[in-house]
Design goal:
The chain has 317 residues and is an alpha+beta fold. It has two domains: 125 residues, Aminotransferase class 4, branched-chain amino acid transferase, N-terminal domain (D-amino Acid Aminotransferase, Chain A, domain 1), CATH 3.30.470; 172 residues, D-amino Acid Aminotransferase, Chain A, domain 2, CATH 3.20.10.10. The protein has nine helices and 15 strands. The strands form two sheets. Strands 7, 8, 9, 10, 11, 12, 13, 14 and 15 form a nine-stranded mixed sheet that branches. The protein has a six-stranded antiparallel sheet with strand order 2-1-6-5-3-4. A hairpin with a 2-residue loop joins strand 1 and strand 2. Helix 7 packs across helix 9. The longest helix is centred in the N-terminal third of the chain and has 15 residues. It is globular.
């Protein structure tokens, strides 16, 4: 498939642009229809990834495409959604969807559902066809003030459960997260910090969490990192992590290592958050977002710190 970008026609409405890929066909958003019997609607069964892409005269770049697809493939296999996710063709479909959408900066939503089936009537996880949906939209244009001055975050009331087998995966069960985010927005906050049922820090509603203490990074342990932290001989009986292993989180840790900034992954408490010098949040849409207040409590100097600024500059696109 060609990856040459096409200039967006300003007079063409979004409804007329072929910005959706659904089960092998490219179409505009008005023609994209999902069965009422799809498992995503009937049972909330599915996984998703949010990606970003940039189109230039040299072609299309879907940022961290392989990392997103590898995470999706691993989650689909582990949760029994499908063993048949093919990352190569899926990556080609994403790139072609971006090309057809013709936006300079694109937000991509990739959704894989359980398909048009009764989940209780399947025998094995490889004998059904998942629904594959790719939707391209213009990327969100965040105000510079968010990053120059930082945002306030609230403390969420919901709790994630490490014993929930879907925790730490990007499932369609996002309603409770969005409710927390709506509540945070109503208070003038940019995010809400979520805790686990053990009252340890987990993440933001739609982001991963980092604090800076004495120039060192600290972040909660993510799903799949338990053995890395405790060692292969001591993982028996270790509590699994409910934290999503974020792609931007991974990039920040890589950049920090290259800069000589020590990073520690461990269980964290509210004191780690409130007593830190800097706090920032990461996801694929905004990159690195400084947090300068936790409700009424100021973090550090009350402005984005130097470590946060360096890491944001390293991951910005």
């Amino acid at each position: 498939m060609s990856d040459q970008p096409i200039s967006t026609n300003e007079s063409e409405s979004q409804d007329q642009i072929a910005s959706v890929f659904l089960d092998g066909e490219f179409m505009n958003r008005q023609d994209a229809k999902l069965s009422v019997f799809d498992a995503s609607i009937q049972h909330g069964v599915g996984l998703f990834e949010t990606l970003s892409a940039t189109s230039t005269v040299d072609g299309i770049v879907v940022h961290d495409l392989d990392a997103h697809l590898d995470r999706l493939q691993a989650s689909a296999a582990k949760l029994g959604l499908s063993d048949e996710i093919k990352t190569g063709p899926l990556g080609e479909a994403i790139t072609e969807t971006v090309r057809r959408a013709r936006y300079k900066n694109t937000r991509i939503r990739l959704t894989i559902t359980g398909g048009d089936l009764n989940m209780l009537q399947t025998h094995g996880r490889s004998n059904h066809r998942p629904t594959v949906l790719i939707a391209a939209q213009p990327a969100t244009d965040y105000p510079d003030e968010m990053f120059d001055k930082g945002v306030m975050v609230t403390l969420g009331t919901a709790r994630v459960n490490p014993l929930d087998p879907t925790a730490g995966h990007k499932t369609l069960n996002y309603w409770w997260r969005l409710r927390e985010l709506q509540d945070a927005a109503s208070k003038g906050a940019g995010e809400s910090v979520i805790f686990s049922v053990s009252n340890h820090l987990a993440s933001g509603c739609v982001s991963n969490l980092f604090v800076v203490d004495g120039g060192h990074l600290i972040t909660p342990i993510a799903q799949g990192e338990e053995e890395e932290i405790s060692g292969p001989k001591t993982t028996e009986g270790v509590m699994p992590s409910p934290v999503l292993p974020g792609i931007t989180r991974m990039r920040v840790i890589e950049h920090a290592k290259a800069m000589g900034i020590k990073t520690t992954k461990r269980m964290m408490t509210i004191d780690d958050l409130l007593d830190s010098d800097e706090v920032f949040l990461t996801n694929s849409s905004w990159g690195v977002l400084p947090a300068v207040k936790v409700e009424a409590e100021m973090i550090g100097s009350g402005s984005p710190g130097e470590v946060t600024k360096k890491l944001r500059a390293a991951v910005v696109r």
